[in-house]
Input
Amino acid sequence: MKKLITIICCFAVTLPCLAFEEVYQTPEDFISQSFTDTPQRKTLWLSGSLKPEVKAILGHDYHKLRLRYWRSKQRTAWVLEEIGKEHYITAGFVVDEKALERVKVLIYRESRGWEVKNDFFTRQFENAKLNNNSKLDKHIDNITGATLSVRAIKRLAELAIHLHLSVADA
Amino acid sequence: MNRPRHKFHSLYLWHRYTGIICAVLVLILASTGLLLQHGQNLELQQKYLNTPWLLNWYGIGKEPVSSYQTQSSWVSQSGKFIYLGGQAVNGEYAELRGAVSTQFGYAIVTGNALSLLNKTGQLIETLDKNSGLPEHALGIAVTEKGVVIRGSQHYWLADKDFLDWEVYSGPHPSWAQSSQAPEEIVSQAQKHHRAHQIHWERVLLDLHSGRLFGRFGYWVMDIAAIGLIVLACSGLWVWTQRRRKDLLHRKK
Output
């Protein structure tokens, strides 16, 4: 019995260290829900002048060279990834007429900080735009215990708007 | 009349000899503790151990290398690292199951995903069933029509940009097979893999706790820590007794 309890305790202690991935919504579902008509799928290469701009927003190069996005008139949707503490968080962003319309955490891989998936957090981003310093023009409340995840989502939100603006005239 | 002095003197001797015996261990405890305290600033988790004898001590041997020959270069894997011609690319990858050359670089199947790399090994995009792939990728081949991946139910042909997929219905593809890469490439990959297994924070933690020397080291560091407590307490006691004596002496 003592052995069994020891094993269970050891397992419980190691749980946070195990690989973890929670899919709240697939990117495909997110995209199909974000448009009333069929959007055009396009690609954007993070090269040229865009590369340093992305680095300025994230604080580092984006880990991929090519992004896919979906577009219908002045509305674009992006699926982006950023590291919270140790693992990538995948989030979807819809930008319409230079403002964020919708933010959704799609896949969460960290062991803690998952509160960012809740609507009470993501709703704060609605109608946010970029100010002159390429930062969000709205204050986003932090979540205790999820600071790094909150920061990651904020950086991605700024990136999504910036990318939208860079393709808006195309 | 001699007893209080004897007691006091023997405590002083305890303090002296405990200090001498524990000196080296306390130095190790304190200096590793200081370094660990500033581990983030020193980026200890990003710096890796590359000393052969210490790697041997940790039991870090050579990892097997699996390789696929493409038109451009050998694509290899050792552990979680991918190598192009023996040079590591950024990132960590699941099990390598196939690799082919493409117009922009390479397409490699790792785990169930398809990763597109440019000619210098930078990641262009990773496709999996959640994003862009019609099925889990189990193998890859180059055919006359283009790159084909093997899914569990169908074979899928990619367009030239790997954006769209259609069911492949041509001659049976010749799937990429692993083969033995030249010794130089294998050796480079193994050397790199070995040098990226243990970061310095781990080494300092093991030295700080004594675990670096096995169970024996663990107990020795416990003794050192107890010795430090004895030193602090005996030192304080000796100091208070001395002060008391000095005050008494002055009154007289």
